[in-house]
Amino acid sequence: MCGIAGKSDWSNSGGETAKTVSLMCESISRRGPDNQGVRSFDEITLGHRRLAIIDLSENANQPMSSADGRFHIVFNGEIYNFIEIKDELIKSGYTFHTNSDTEVILYAFEKYGDECFKMFNGMFALAIWDSKLRTLTFAKDRFGKKPLYYFFDKNNNVTFASEIKALKQDSSIPFEVSYEALNCFLAIGYILSPMTIYKDIYKLEAAHYMKISDSGKSVSKVRYWDYSDSFRIKNKDSEEDTCSHTLHLLEESVKRRMISDVPVGAFLSGGVDSTSIVALMKKFHKGELHTFSVGFNQESYNELPDADRAAKVIGTNHHGLICDIKDELEFINNAVDVFDEPFADNSLIPMIEVSKLASEYVTVVLSGDGADEIFAGYITYKADKYYNYAKPIPDSLKKFIIGFSENSKNKKKLNWQYRQKQFLNGTLHSPEQAHYLWRQFFSPEERVNILGEKYKDLVYDTDPYFIFKKYYYKCVDLEPLDRNLYVDGMTWLTDDILVKVDRTTMFSSIEARCPYLDPKLVDYAASIPCDRKMKGLKLKYILKKALKDVVPEFVINKKKSGFNSPVGTWIGANGNDEFKTFNKFVYDRKFN
Question: What does pTM read for this prediction?
Answer without folding.
Answer: 0.92
